[in-house]
Amino acid sequence: MPRNPVLSASRIRTTALDIIDRDGLDGLSMRKLAAELGVRAASLYGHVSTKDDLLHEVAGEILEKVDVSGFAEGDWRHGLTMCARSYRAALAQHPNIVPFLAYGPAHRDASLRRLDVVHGALVSAGWTRREATMIAASLMYLVFGAALSSFSSGFSEDQALYRDRYPNLDKAHLLPSVARELDHDSFELALGAFVAGLAARAPVPPAPTGSAG
């Protein structure tokens, strides 16, 4: 058997993500990663050039779970809804890396491929290129806003903090106990309103080529 552990790109990404999940984004360093892999830090550079490159690779793997297949059915509303739900679910599994992902697609192939699908489907449905860009950006604001914080968990369970000073928030102390359910339902409410609002101002889809006038 080899004296040193066998390194692979997949094993490096998995271990790096484990560290991020456990210690946060700032908790990842190439030295700590090497130690957890049982190798010298110099050994990592044969597989990844920099920590930033590694983060992009980890991010790309997470984003493979974002589902844009709904756009293939020709219904941009369904496509947006599927994309948003799967995106939020993917981020919810690894919340510590969300701030890195929130910077935008940059040069991440996984992000750009999915954005290309979304943009193309929206333009094909009759939206202008500018509108398609704005819709995609708005969807990201919604998804990342939901992933970066929990509204319900931010309240104290101490009823006395709200009861006397904020009479309309006298039940706010109950929110942390139902945070997961309420955050999910709040996201669904916002997503539904977003898609319905777009549908109300949607352009008329272009007529199929060769159709009768």
Question: Mind explaining what this structure looks like?
Answer:
There is one protein chain. The protein is mainly alpha-helical and 213 residues long. 58% of the residues lie in helices and 0% in strands. It has two domains: 9-48, Arc Repressor Mutant, subunit A; 66-200, Tetracycline Repressor, domain 2, CATH 1.10.357. The chain is built from ten helices and no strands. The chain is flat, with a radius of gyration of 22 Å.
Helix and strand topology:
Blueprint lengths: L8 H15 L6 H8 L3 H4 L6 H13 L12 H18 L4 H4 L7 H16 L4 H20 L11 H4 L15 H22 L13
Helix pairs in contact: 1-4, 5-8, 5-10, 7-8, 8-10
**Mean pLDDT across residues:** 89
Rg (CA only): 22 Å
Task: Kindly give the count of domains.
Answer: 2
Q: Can you count the helices?
A: 10
Per CATH, the class of the largest domain reads Mainly Alpha
Give the CA-based shape: flat
What low-confidence regions span 5 or more consecutive residues with pLDDT below 50?
A: none
Summarize the structure.
With 213 residues, the protein is an all-alpha fold. It contains ten helices and no strands. It has two domains: 9-48, Homeodomain-like (Arc Repressor Mutant, subunit A), CATH 1.10.10.60; 66-200, Tetracycline Repressor, domain 2, CATH 1.10.357.10.
Write a concise keyword list for the protein shown above.
213 residues, 58% helix, flat, mainly alpha
